[in-house]
Q: What sequence folds into this?
């Protein structure tokens, strides 16, 4: 079935460090892939998405490339800020399951000044 | 401003009591969803509704009930049959097809003692 695996946290980085959060998926064909961010005490917000292979989603300095060959959608940012501290969720949706969303377990990021 | 409202933010109940969580959206979205979030886990789908007066069970519907009498409202009742009701509950909606890009509310944290 469809599933998402993302790296376990928590991740702690110094301000301006480079960020990578790994996400791999299991699905047949071509699902749509998403990164959501959850700030403390809030709901999830869509950060970026990609709907076909080799697409790159980007937003607020974050990027992720849909890699079909490695079934991955790793999240990256070149220089993190304290305000990026949050929990990041990788997710997929696929037409073979009525486009139902499957979320990873989330990766907590703390950026220290 | 358009958005999704969940109230209250924090809710406390005694074991054995039913409790209803509110979810309202003014985005004119057709589809609405309820998720449960537990520490260290991804989101799990409880119920979803594609149109008014229609809803479907998600992966963990046991012990929950919903109604969809109005397009903008999708309340969730946590019944006394739900064995582990303490969790963070998130409501979401999507504008297009079922399970298209989802927009989340701020969540309700329910504590049952």
A:
């Amino acid at each position: 079935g469809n599933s998402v695996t993302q790296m376990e946290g928590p991740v702690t980085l110094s301000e301006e460090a480079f960020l990578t959060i790994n996400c791999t998926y299991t699905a047949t064909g071509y699902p749509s892939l998403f990164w959501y961010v959850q700030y403390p005490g809030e709901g999830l917000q869509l950060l970026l998405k990609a709907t076909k292979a080799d697409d790159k989603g980007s937003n607020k300095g974050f990027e992720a490339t849909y890699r079909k060959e490695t079934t991955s959608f790793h999240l990256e940012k070149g220089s993190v800020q304290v305000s990026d501290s949050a929990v990041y969720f990788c997710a997929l949706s696929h037409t073979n399951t009525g486009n139902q969303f499957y979320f990873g377990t989330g990766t907590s990021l703390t950026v220290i000044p | 401003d358009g958005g999704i409202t969940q109230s209250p933010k924090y809710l406390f109940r005694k074991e054995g009591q039913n409790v209803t969580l509110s979810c309202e959206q003014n985005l004119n979205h057709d589809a609405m969803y309820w998720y449960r979030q537990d520490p260290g886990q991804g989101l799990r789908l409880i119920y979803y509704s594609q149109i008014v007066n229609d809803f479907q069970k998600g992966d963990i519907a046991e012990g929950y009930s919903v109604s969809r009498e109005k397009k903008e409202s999708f309340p969730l009742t946590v019944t006394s049959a739900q064995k582990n009701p303490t969790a963070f509950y998130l409501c979401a909606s999507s504008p297009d097809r079922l399970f298209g890009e989802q927009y989340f509310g701020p969540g309700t944290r329910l504590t049952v003692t």
